[in-house]
Amino acid sequence: MANVRARQRLAPSRTVDTRTAHGHRHRAATGWFVWLVILANAVMTIVLWARGGNVSGVHSGAALLNSLGRITGLLGTYLLLLQVLLLARFPWIERLTGFDRLTVWHRLNGKVCLYLILAHVALTTIGYALTDRVSISREASLLLQNYPGMVTAMIGTALLIVVVVTSLIIVRRRLRYETWYLVHLTAYAAIYLSWTHQLPTGNEFLTNPATATYWTTLYLITLALLVIFRIVQPVYRGFWHRMHVEEVTVAGRNVVSLHITGRHLDRLDARAGQFFLWRFLTRGRWWESHPFSLSAAPDGRSLRITVKNSGDFTSRIGEIVPGTAVLAEGPFGVFTDDVRRRDRVALIAGGIGITPIRALLEEMSCDLVLVYRVLREDDLVFRDELEELAWDRQMPLFYVVGDHAVPVGERLMSPEHLGELIPELAERDVYLCGPPVMTDILEQNVLRAGVQRKHIHIERFAL
Ligand SMILES: Cc1cc2nc3c(=O)[nH]c(=O)nc-3n(C[C@H](O)[C@H](O)[C@H](O)COP(=O)(O)OP(=O)(O)OC[C@H]3O[C@@H](n4cnc5c(N)ncnc54)[C@H](O)[C@@H]3O)c2cc1C
């Protein structure tokens, strides 16, 4: 049944503060710098390919295929290194665009890498077969027998294929997340094998030792950043912050809150709306980390997360006992007040997506309205807290309860319904968070209600 509640808004409107404008400029400058570095190295890769005789030496169809085979191989492996950096938890890049967008790019880039590397295998084999005047299968066997690093390169390519195939969403849904993750780790082996193949066989590297040094340096920098940001920093921070669970409380039906405390938490520089990758150091849990958003604005002394039972890990999270040590990677995400462009904001939460919205509500000081969408009344969490915050701020709070699959709920959260709840929605920035399917539908409805894409900020609970 649809059930909508509202309170009168009395909050005055404000202008966008200078901190936000400065944040936009800083992010834009960092963005340009990152793109410049990426582009410069891509150009460098093309230059070293061209200087390796791959343009001037092309006088036949076979030479052309070999030359194209080399550039696809070089660019494919260059993108493979970027692939690692995209999710190396490199704070500059993460703050620029947000973890979820990086994940989207990572997925896309992964496919491009594989296509380029497969093109490299096909073009090179055909090119060499034409040069040697033998069949393609005979050439493939000759390459494997006579060239150093070919067998390992073949294993690396096979690993990449497995990684990409298991990552296709349709396959991933049939796999346990942890299984997919373990398979994914083999991509590092594939990258190492590509390097051991390239240096002893690549024309560009054999003819010019400086290019070999440059290429190896790219691999080493990538490895260093990976080790620093994915291993050293989280472990160091773990020791420094000594985070542990202080209290576990029930927040609602199938939902618990974990209150986490530690030392120097103010130095985490966390903001409302952000999330961490949490690892609870108990037997059976220490090896998996899961993303959960802060459900209260960080106060420098403690952090709170609120978790809904949605699978094997989350169903047992309420069993964690106070005192359990915690490693937290982060903070991540750009779903913060910093990305706001206007002084009027609509916060829209779907289901457990209320967690970062609840934190934002506490931190944001502009003209706010909150719409909280759930299927059942007992899915509402933080009800008392939300009502208290809304009352303090004299802002409207709407609960939209009901199943849109039944006729009475069909209109819920439609563009028309949103327009009735928030008549001036198109003049607001919209912060939207929830499970992936719900968020996608709500995003479309918000767009159709007239809000421009640049004014919609989304946290999708899926990486
Ligand atoms: C940025 C972000 C913030 C989130 N914040 C919250 C929150 O505040 N409260 C909350 O209840 N949920 C939150 N989630 C969702 C939560 O991370 C998943 O529900 C949880 O990891 C599921 O784990 P599971 O083993 O219980 O379920 P499973 O059945 O194993 O997985 C269910 C789905 O969750 C995803 N998932 C599982 N494990 C991981 C993992 N280690 N890393 C990334 N995704 C995973 C997969 O897409 C999987 O299909 C958030 C997700 C993201 C991406």
Order of helices and strands: EHHHHHHHHHHEEEEEEEHEHEHEHE
Mean pLDDT: 89
Low-confidence stretches: 1-18
Rg from Cα: 26 Å
Beta percentage is 15-25%
Could you characterize what this model shows?
With 463 residues, the chain is of the alpha/beta class. The chain has three domains: 135 residues, Nucleotide-binding domain of ferredoxin-NADP reductase (FNR) module (Rossmann fold); 219 residues, no CATH class; 91 residues, Translation factors (Elongation Factor Tu (Ef-tu), domain 3, Beta Barrel), CATH 2.40.30. 52% of the residues lie in helices and 16% in strands. The chain is built from 14 helices and twelve strands. Strands 1-10-9-8-11-12 form a six-stranded mixed sheet, with helices on both faces. Strands 2-3-6 form a three-stranded antiparallel sheet, with no helix packed on it. A three-stranded antiparallel sheet has the order 5-4-7. A hairpin with a 2-residue loop joins strand 2 and strand 3. Helix 2 runs antiparallel to helix 4 and helix 4 runs antiparallel to helix 6. Flavin-adenine dinucleotide binds next to strand 5 and strand 6.
Key descriptive features of the protein:
single chain, 463 residues, alpha/beta, Rossmann fold, Elongation Factor Tu (Ef-tu), domain 3, 6-stranded mixed sheet, 3-stranded antiparallel sheet, 12 strands, disordered N terminus, binds flavin-adenine dinucleotide
